[in-house]
Amino acid sequence: MGFGGRRGVWLTGLVVFGLVFVLFLESWVLGGFAEDPLQGTPLALVEDGIRIKGGLPSLDDTEQGRYVSRFKNGVTAVYTLEAALQTAMENYFKRYRVPYGVFVAIDPNTGKILASVEYSSIDPKAERLAFRATYPAASIFKLVTASAALEEKKARPDTQITFHGGLYRLGPKNWVDNPKRDKQKISLAEALAKSCNVAFAKVALRWLNAPTLLSYAERFQFNRPIPFELPVQVSRMEIDQSERGLAMTAAGFGDVGLSPLHGAMIGAAIANDGVMMSPCLVDQVRAANGEKLYECAPKIFSTAISSETAQSLRDMMAMTVISGTSRKAFRMKRREVSLRGITIGGKTGSLTGEDPPGKYSWFVGMAPLEDPEIAVAALVINHPKWRIKASQVAKEGFATYFQSENLKRIASQ
Questions:
Q1: Separation CA 152–CA 211 (nearest Å)
Q2: Looking at the predicted structure, is the pLDDT value of residue 248 above 90?
Q3: What is the DSSP code (8-state) at residue 141?
């Protein structure tokens, strides 16, 4: 090889070296080779927020009423969890020693998780109960059916539905219109409050269809992953095209799973004029020098329904507490000082499930209805006998939250 050939090789090598050096320098300037400030913690920054590797770190310290984790490298993680609410609900489940109990509370305006409580007297090592979707949604799904009927302008809260055979019997003999036998009447609002199965089957058969019901379920994020700091199982929803499939699913007896976190998000969307916010558990992360490394910024996850439909649903859910399926649990609320003057809305659900086995009791709701500050989902699995119902858990949660908020207001004056 002559000098010209060697010179060409030398020049090519110099160019390559220069490019590599420039890329190295650029990466160094941008921090590509800098030490990860979250190294040594279970936290990791990702494109759409932050993730917690493994389980939630132990919550053994608080800062201004919220739980924090302080890591050995000086990093501090501040969670959205309200310590007073979290502790009170943990103690409540322990007091009744329920087989399985879950309570999730969300700020509907921001998506911040105010409490995420799990307890099991028969499986103390059970984890992430709030994020499992193996639980049947039961009559909580009636909120989706009602949303579809209202949003599609097929029915109003005062629309009357005629039926026979009682509120809870469900089958072709009573969901098919029979003018000779359908002598009972119930409004859509009353049907939601009293969880009338046949009324919701008739609503779906008369005014909806399987694709429409599925589309509204997906507006509420069924069959879709939920972005969160910890893994959340997808709440599945399947429906066949048959009359039976539509009727059973609309009434809450379909192949529909629901996680308590997702249940609270559904309640929060209805509370927030139909807008579902992305849930957030880590409020902020600070470096040892106080530099803010991350902060939860409220983000819209989806718009499930219009504000008008959401308002109608809240009004209908108020009847559940006043005269419907949770009236007994909230009847004594006048004796709860913190709940005086607080209007509450909710929806109950109950069904037998297999994973884990037992009788499932749900409550999804919000308060105060005029301007909701908190949305909750409570789930209790009783086996073999009933201990407490989800409505009682929700009432305890609301009472604790508003008592804490009252104390904050007094302290700030």
A1: 13
A2: yes
A3: G
User: What is the CATH number for 145?
Assistant: 3.40.710.10
The answer to whether the pTM exceeds 0.85 is yes
- Cα(128)–Cα(233) distance, integer angstroms: 10
- State pLDDT tens for residues 48-97: 889 999 888 888 789 989 999 999 989 999 999 999 999 999 999 999 99
3-class secondary-structure state, position 161: strand
Q: How far is Cα 284 from Cα 295, in angstroms, rounded to an integer?
A: 4
Phi, psi of 192 (to 5 degrees): -70, -45
Give the up-direction half-sphere exposure of residue 17: CA atoms within 13 A in the CB hemisphere: 6
Structural domain contains residue 59: no
Residue from 173, 233, 230, 231 nearest 201 by CA? 173
3-state class of 398 per DSSP? helix
What is the domain range of residue 241? 78-412
Distance CA 116, CA 160 (A): 39
> Long-range contact list for 327-333, CB < 8 A, 24+ apart?
328/391, 329/389, 329/391, 329/392, 329/394, 329/395, 330/391, 330/395, 333/395, 333/399
